[in-house]
Amino acid sequence: MKNSDVARHFEEIGDLLEIQGANSFRVRAYRNGSRTIEDLAEPIASIAAEGEKALVELPGIGKDIAAKIVVLLETGTTPQLEQLREEVPPGVVQMLRIQGLGPKKVKALFKELEVTSLEELKAAAESGAVAELKGFGKKTAQTILDGIEHVEQAGNRYFISEALVPAELILEDLLKLDSVTQASIAGSARRRKETCGDLDLLATSSNSAEAMELLANHELVEKVLAQGDTKQRVRLRSGIEMDLRVVPDESYGAAMQYFTGSKEHNIVIRQRAQKRGLRLNEYGIFKDEELVAGKTEEEVYKAVDLPWIPPELRENRGEIEQAEEGQLPKLLELKDIKGDLHMHTTATDGTASIREMAEAARERGLKYIAITDHSKRVTMANGLDADRLRKHWAEIRKIREEFSDIEILCGIECDILEDAELDLPDDVLSEGDWVIAVLHYGLKQPGEQIMKRLLNAVKNPYVCAIGHPSGRIVGRRPGADIHYPDLFKAAADHGVFMEINAHPSRLDLDDIQAAAAKDHGIPIVINTDAHSTTGFDVMKYGVYQARRAGLEKKDVANTRTFKQFKKMLRTSS
DNA sequence: GCCGTTTTCGGCCCGACTGTTTTCAGTCG
């Protein structure tokens, strides 16, 4: 059972308990436990194998949840969840996803109207039954109908790229207003989380009405959902919702800190404030009623005896302890990247030639690239067999003579076949400069076979890197069942790199596994997997992911000069 | 349900906005 399955199990217990009206702190305890498991780099089953005591040492896991983890791993479920599922049908949990419906209202709908699915809820709202319930009204019924439509048509979360692009455009327009003195993106988009549920914008302004009017009439905005004096919520045409908050100048830093989150990070920061006899909210840090800090984020952190913490790290995954000890990493930056080792050309499924890709890479300041078209197994991309690959490499060797200021490596993205063999023979691979081995097919194979394939690739003397290791698509397709500690140990032993694929739909390794790979001392490469000349522009998303993993420049191989990079290759001689 | 250098019991972050209410509960972030 994967960590994500175990985490989801306890998340569901939390949801169901909440609908039943359980103590909210008990509900939160299950969610905290769930999150701890979700964030683990190691399989929870390995920890459980050491005994219940090892589980209890995890934050947010006590005796009770530890015992349930053991039962869950042994039997595939827990009596508690089975019992809860009997009491609360699955459609009722679905109702929690509707904006404006929380546990109390959902419970009332379920108990009073016996509504157990979104369809039944829709019918009840349309018939007027919902509006007649105590605590409900016509507007609530309409909100529910809008909410159902939204849940049905849009997925709930957006790729970081889908979130940041409109947010940056709107931010730019806000800053053009004379009345707006400062403005920034906050929330999960500022933390560069791989997906965002919504967007947060923050501004200081002498005229908050003007800022809100601009947003209400913005071409990217579809509808104003709520509006007060300091807070406005809108839905963009893309479906994503955005909050704008206008705060006083002296509170800007506190509001940035507050609305950047994460919730888990902020809870700990506020607890630190409490311990120091201070009160922290979005307006500042207060001693009794006196404002003692709030204009900048640095001030806020200083008031709780911490240095400023980069937003990407604010997840309460150890960054507060690091900050306390002065051990925060100096995070990688986009400008540190000097090479890109994964891209395609018209030889397979790319849209640009070798020369065009090299020129585009040079324009972006890259000093070295590897052309890595597909191997033959990927028939739909016109993958290369040995003959075509050798000709392709000959072509690359010819073209690279034309470029004095950028190195072009003869590479290949070689499939690791379902039977664990590589898609091209060793004698062919040995002629290249850079071999990335990847899983494309058979991602649903049992973990044992997946590991056999990956380990076989790692042991091959010509494989330089494992590309997009899990094969996941963010929010859409789960990755292969990988036992990461074994993979990383083998990669470290054989000097094989791990890729962070920078495409916003992949971001694979994810942040947690990238941090674990760093701990194993494995060199990491961040690659765009560009299929066109504009494909290079996704590099920043890979860098964001690396920053969330706490990676520094030294942890990432393609920050090196070409000379240094080449020395790291096992095939270099 | 979890947690502990004020605590093994009694806490557990905090304010804005909405809609349904006649003073506030529910929801959200």
Q: What Rg do the Cα atoms give?
A: 26 Å
CATH topology of the largest domain: TIM Barrel
Instruction: Report the major sheet.
Output: 7 strands, parallel
Overall geometry comes to: globular
Provide the helix percentage. 40-55%
CATH homologous superfamily descriptor of the largest domain:
Metal-dependent hydrolases
Strand order of the largest sheet: 11-12-13-14-15-16-17
- Number of folding domains? 5
Q: Count the helices. How many?
A: 26
Residue runs with pLDDT of under 50 for 5 or more positions: none
CATH structural class of the largest domain: Alpha Beta
Given helix and strand content, the structural type is alpha/beta
Hey, roughly how much beta strand do the residues contain?
5-15%
* Mean pLDDT value: 91
CATH architecture of the largest domain: Alpha-Beta Barrel
Amino- and carboxy-terminal Cα gap: 43 Å
User: Count the strands?
Assistant: 17
Task: Give a summary of the structure in a few sentences.
The protein is 44% helix and 15% strand. The chain is α/β, with parallel strands linked by helices and 573 residues long.
